[in-house]
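#onboarding

Welcome to the new folks! Below is a worked example of what a typical request in this channel looks like: someone posts a single protein sequence, and someone else replies with the predicted structure as tokens. Don't worry about understanding the tokens yet, we'll cover that in week two.

Example request:
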Amino acid sequence: MKLIQLCSAVVLMLVFSGAKAQSTEFSKPDQPAKCKNFREGKFLRENYPEGIWYKTIKDNVQTEYFNNGKDFVKSTLVFVDDCSYKAIVTEKSDKNDPVQIGDVVSNKIIQTQGNSLKVQSKIENEQFEVIYIKIK
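Example response:
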């Protein structure tokens, strides 16, 4: 049952991230990626209004907001190295959200350019890429 819920969460994330995010390449990516610049701040997904989704990161806590900020999923971030980290879900507001407390998402920042970063995320056996824009 948990696997079905987890797969549902991944499908939702893929739908929200959009296929375009997977095919977008940065024209002049930083060499090497400037991962430490993205350990704090407020982030949007590429081509998504803030009312649908945004996240904040502060003091190794990531909070993702949905539904005009009414719902959230909070995770503790554990950095493996400068560009790799695990997000461990610690709290959520919507009991019907398929993401469960204790779920772990492995993330790797694979490119940065200016205020944008491309992150490769893996949960269970599903992997996807999302582009985020740091706005604060």
